[in-house]
Amino acid sequence: MEEVERRTVVLDYEPRPQFQPFHFREQRYGIIVAHRRAGKTVACINDLIKRAIECPKPEGRYAYVAPLYNQAKDVAWTYLKKYAYPLLAAPPNESELRIDLVNGARVRLYGADNPDRLRGLYLDGVILDEYADMRDSVWGEVIRPMLTDRQGWAVFIGTPKGKNAFWKLWDDSQDDLTWFSLRLRASETGLIAPDELADARRGMSRDQYEQEFECSFEAAIQGAFYAEELRRADEEGRVGKVPVDRAVPVHTAWDLGVTDSTAIWFIQCVGRERRLVDYHEASGVGFDVYAKVLKDKGYVYGDHYFPHDVAAHEMSTGQSRVETLRGLGIEPVVVPMSNVMDGINSVRRLIDAAWIDADRCKRGLEALRQYRREWDEKLKDWKMRPLHDWPSHGADALRTFAGGFEDRKPIKIQFGRSSGTWMGG
Fold it and tell me: Which residue segments constitute the domains of the chain, with CATH numbers given?
């Protein structure tokens, strides 16, 4: 058997000590939670290059995925070309953001904003950068199946943005020896000078600093609508275990999904208190499933609040959703469409009078924490309108309740002078 000549190529990259354990990991999956300017992108690009050039299988395929395609180009393309230069088999492919290495392996950049571009391919390894900004389905429906044929590896990197799918991976990895995990806090790494950190702390809000430099999953999301109200609820002990009072009716509030999730809040009203006692969210199922969910919970129900689009008719049956719900024993209260910001302010008032069950409402509570304004990249400022992503469902459902219950106009009684009768107006 002919012996293959091996040669050593030294890349223009000296790993920071903090990333040495990452480069020598043996686990198939990994997650890195790192502060800004820690160098995680440079480390991950070089890790991709090293593993691609050492790939024992023919035609190795490796990928770096950012939330947006343009983001991948801006953040990683220059690094990839620079560090892989001694190993290139051909000039970098600028149109495809792809490099081909001398051993036949290939590394390419992608954006999670167009995950269908990845379908049908196989991967030996992948880096998912700023995974907290990606849709949950990108991993389970697109990336993970691509690793199956070659038993490829995956690493998730980023900074926290609340307790979303990125946090869930981090939390699960802590008790799983098959995962490599690394958290780099600025106060511990020494990678940023103390006076620079002190200046950053002065120029940022507490939540911004804790999230970006101390890798806190607990910090409120930038641009979050309900950050202050939920902070007060936490500090006042109104988030915890909230028992369901069987003598008080449970109202439900819905947000209807067609191609995405349907969310339902379960709420009891006792005087001025609003008790958020339960939450349910699912997708891809019909009203009959949700009717069974309500029945199985065993609550004594009050009103069921639905957004205005519940009045729409189904094309296939010609029957309105209202009629479908009535047939399942759910009498909907249709809440008229209103100004979004007015509704958000109503929810703020509601949260200030709310007790929230942290266990049964876990996902709904996290949706409220992460419900935030959309960022205007051109103006570098927050837009007034909310960002439409997964937290929208839970937040919109509670806004439905606020519009239907909290903002009901009281009936005013006045004396009718002309007729001498009482009138409601």
Answer: 17-212 (3.40.50.300), 227-406 (3.30.420.240)
